Amino acid sequence: MNLKISNKKLIIKYLASISLSITSLSVSGQIFSTAQNPLSVKWNYIYSGGFKIIYPQELEKEAQRMANTLPFIYPKVGLSLRQQKTAIPLLLQNRGTIANGFVQLAPKKSEFYATPPQFFDSQDWLNNLAVHELRHVAQFDKLTGTQAHPFPELAYFAYFGAAIPIWFFEGDAVVNETALTNSGRGRQPNWIMPYRASILEGRKISYSKAYFGSNKDVTPGYYQTGYLMVSDMKEKYGQFISDSILSDIRKRPLRLYPFSQSLKKFTKQNSSAYFLSTQNKLAGEWKIQQEKSVTENYERLNKKTDLATDYFFPVRLNKKHILALKESKTDARYFVIINDDKSEQKLFGIGYQEQPWFSLKNDLLVWDEIRYDPRYKQRSYSVICSYNLKTKKFKKLSSRSRLFSPSLSNDGKRIIASKVELNNQFNLVELDAGSGKILKTYPNPENEILQTPSFDQSGNRIAYIGVTEKGKSLWLIDGEKKSALISNSRQQLNRPVFINNKIVFNAHFNGINNIYQIDPTSKKISALTAAKYGAFNPTETPDGKIIFNDYKINGYEIAEATLTEKPVGENNFIDFAAAAEKQENVGNVFENIPDSIYPSKRYHTALNLFSVHSIVPVIDNEYIFGLQLESNNLLNTMNFYTGAKYHRDLKRFEYTADISYKALYPVLSILYRNRPKRTFYRAKNPVQQGDWRENYIKLNASLPLSFNARNHNYAFTLNTATSFTQRYMPENMPSGFIRELKFPMEYNFTFNHSVRTTERDIAPRWAQVLRATYNHQPFDKNLKGEILALESFLYFPGLAKNHSFLASFNYQKATGVNQYATEIATVYGYNNILAKSKLQNSLLFNYRFPFAFPDWELGPFAYVRNLRAGLFCHYENIGKGTTFNDPKTYGVELNTSVNLLRYQPVADLGARLVFVNQIYNQNPILEFSFNYSF
After folding, report:
1. Could you give the strand order of the β-sheet that contains 535-540, starting from the edge strand earlier in sequence?
2. What is the pLDDT of residues 534-544, one digit of tens each?
3. Lowest CB count within 10 Å: 56, 261, 300, 736, which one?
């Protein structure tokens, strides 16, 4: 197309839709939850020192413990931010099986998910959450003040997300958890291992790449980046540097890059410069550590990869084949067989796991995966699945269970697993590998957190890890006898397995995660590996070696070594939080916690439906704007909004109210509008203007159901709605003006199936979306008409990985007052093309693909994550005078995902060039898109 041709006009359409979700500051980096618990959960609450602890009745003991713990430790947690008191609701959640914790505003609250992961710190899980999340409470209080300010919470939260990088929030909290305890992620070598590997391999990265991540490389993550930078700040500028920065931001909030400017005020460096100086310091210190450490190189048994790729838990099937659990930037997690020439054979994909895990014995493969409740997403289960390599049959061995880390006996007939009850009681259970029936429960009177059990070769002995506030212990069960081989250690002990009557496990005695063995009789510990960055997940091979994960710059690779004992070696780990620990001078903040009994009361959900937290500005378009009062209750079961908007063109106000109740199986909502309206009509040729006001009430009931099975996700949504409109105060309206619109009915059903996606996928490799909509007017004789719409969206794999092909056929039949309505997906450029006939169907073909992942840092302005392109060919009213030779529109589109101005939300920028069939006598259309979301 030649844009210089005279008399050719290029139509430019700006599409701008901004969707901003404020992320939570959670342990796992998840956004805060808006899901509900089932109605069967009964809640109690305790008041203690500013904390209102709301919890399911099964967690009475844990709630009492937190009631003693939180007020006791908060003054120490908040000391370096000069925060000594707070007031905040805290919810303890126990129905889920995914570990998490967060603090949020709008409404102000914190949530602790009581079920711990199978790999975490060497301290009590709820204590681990408390020392981290209370630091976020102190951060928020520092910026907002501790006095009650309910109305601006959402504005505060939005400002925090825009003004202060998440790496600072999280890094400051991790430094705090490390300095105030004997544990903390700052003391775990494997936690900062990816960054250390990148630096020592010569791959220094930009500030933006460290902060925002990459679609191709392993990056440290914003938790680790923040921890290392804040540790350095505290070492150089003292205990109260975080307080100084946040105080300056609070005093001068309205600046571009407020955090970076405040950081520069106290350190003489902005965020990017400080990151680079910290990275140079790390390179020097890690190089010295490397020179002190005795390491070995291991041959890679998997193919070399250029992308971040992990091969978890390698197991030798025989001399020529290895089984592993693989995932990468291009592929969701799946089982793979690796041949001796390093070629690969994909077996099958699996569902989401809290952490990677499987066990293989006697051709039987078992693993755990997360399954969600169809409706109440606060409830999830960890179920055990199996696959027989000989018969090729799948089986789900448990349903609605809370079982973790299943390990098979040597004959493949029994499984040992960790079970977590709703009251946070932990036990080891033995199951039948054929039926899933629980055969035996092992007592755990001390209620240690139990992790990663395994059988010995005879099936009579069990090794496992136990965790308490005192540390981690390696336990051995032999019949009725139970003995501790390692007691209350701060080592990251995990995944013990029996090899040659010894127990092989992972720890970091030399400051690097490696594989060790212990003799159960003498308790002598020896090293089996000396990996440069980290060695994990050992399994014995048929020829008496061990096969294991050897961490390299692109992820967890596969290596093999003989069983040769080595000295444990000297611990050369660098504790970057040592200066902060000395400044705090607390020791372990969890020592000497009181043991009082607090009165608990029933928390009545029906009496706690409203929690008004914010007044926010709302802008519908350039003509309509106003203010809205928002309420979201603590259990996410009721949303309420009300407000007023001013119509600048009509010079009149609109009044709104919305309520959504989500505690029941169907979601019920009511919407009310009192609004001005204007229309134009012809009366005896001249165009007349008419105005009126109307009361509009809409009732909606929705039943959203979804579930997952292995790597497949399914969703069903049934929706029905009706409304009533009463018009009044007509001005200059014709005599036939209709005063009431009586209960038009809307019905919608949607089915969705898709396979798991990866961060590089533009769309699922396989997915089907089917939607049926029917609207009619059964109660209004004056407004006859109906519309039936059927839509289908079918996604297929493209010509290469992460390419996507979409075929969509859509049909509608509309009559009466609905005859010109549009309920189906339309061709690109539809609103800019003069129609020649009523819309009856559309056939849409789209091919989209990524073509570059540059990780470009364009100064402080943008970080370019990827570049994508697409081709499309769209038909309208196919078979109604239109053939496959006559697409209505076709063209090309380009998109990119970027982080603008070093802010966390990802902006998707796009341009689309739409060519229009010549019969419409229409010039090409250029559309721009801008979508903004987390």
Report:
1. 535-540, 545-552, 555-562
2. 999 999 999 99
3. 736
